[in-house]
């Protein structure tokens, strides 16, 4: 939201750092009088950054206005629920499910038009790690989950392979199991690492 302030921007040597360590330069600062409900803070410093960044409430303002963050969260949730209710009057939830039915399917989806490649190091040699024993009480559930993954087209059975990594079985609260593979056992060390910077969250 634009602020129509009849004041001159003062220079500032402060810069801000995001969680992903990106630097946000400061264009300057101004002094404003702030009021939130029945609380007022005179001559508060407001720092101006380039457009495209979210507004951040600093600790100086929180202390100066004696804000209760839990109450602010409650107010924001109330506004979001009110906004959602007004949208819901225009477009019912069932209409959304029907319009975007492919998104809400109760099955594991796939990312289209993307091919993943694993690059081996030049001196890499295949490694086959012995499987780990599955507790007898979980074996039937593991077999069932393997069949489910195969039927869904996520895994494909093979008879022989030069590569092998042990299965990790994780019991879930609903009685089923989650199947993972421990690729730390030799495979990861033989791959060329792909380093990608973390996307900016601001």
Automatic annotation (TrEMBL):
GO terms for biological process: DNA biosynthetic process. InterPro entries: DNA/RNA_pol_sf (IPR043502), Retrovirus_Pol_polyprotein (IPR050951). It comes from the Eukaryota. This is Reverse transcriptase domain-containing protein. The lineage of its organism: Eukaryota, Metazoa, Ecdysozoa, Arthropoda, Hexapoda.
């Amino acid at each position: 939201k634009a602020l129509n302030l009849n004041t001159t921007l003062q220079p500032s040597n402060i810069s801000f750092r995001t969680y992903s360590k990106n630097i946000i330069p400061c264009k300057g600062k101004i002094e404003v009088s702030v009021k939130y409900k029945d609380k007022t803070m005179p001559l508060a410093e407001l720092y101006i950054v380039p457009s495209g960044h979210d507004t951040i409430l600093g600790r100086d303002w929180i202390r100066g206005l004696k804000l209760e963050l839990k109450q602010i969260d409650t107010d924001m949730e109330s506004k979001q629920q009110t906004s959602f209710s007004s949208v819901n009057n225009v477009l019912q939830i069932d209409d959304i499910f029907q319009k975007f039915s492919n998104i809400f399917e109760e099955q594991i989806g796939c990312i289209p038009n993307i091919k993943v490649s694993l690059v081996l190091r030049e001196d890499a040699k295949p490694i086959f790690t012995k499987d780990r024993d599955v507790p007898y009480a979980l074996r039937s559930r593991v077999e069932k989950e393997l069949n489910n993954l195969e039927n869904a087209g996520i895994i494909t059975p093979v008879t022989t392979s030069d590569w092998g990594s042990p299965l990790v079985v994780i019991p879930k609260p609903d009685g089923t199991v989650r199947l993972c593979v421990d690729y730390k056992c030799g495979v990861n060390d033989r791959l060329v690492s792909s380093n990608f910077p973390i996307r900016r969250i601001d």
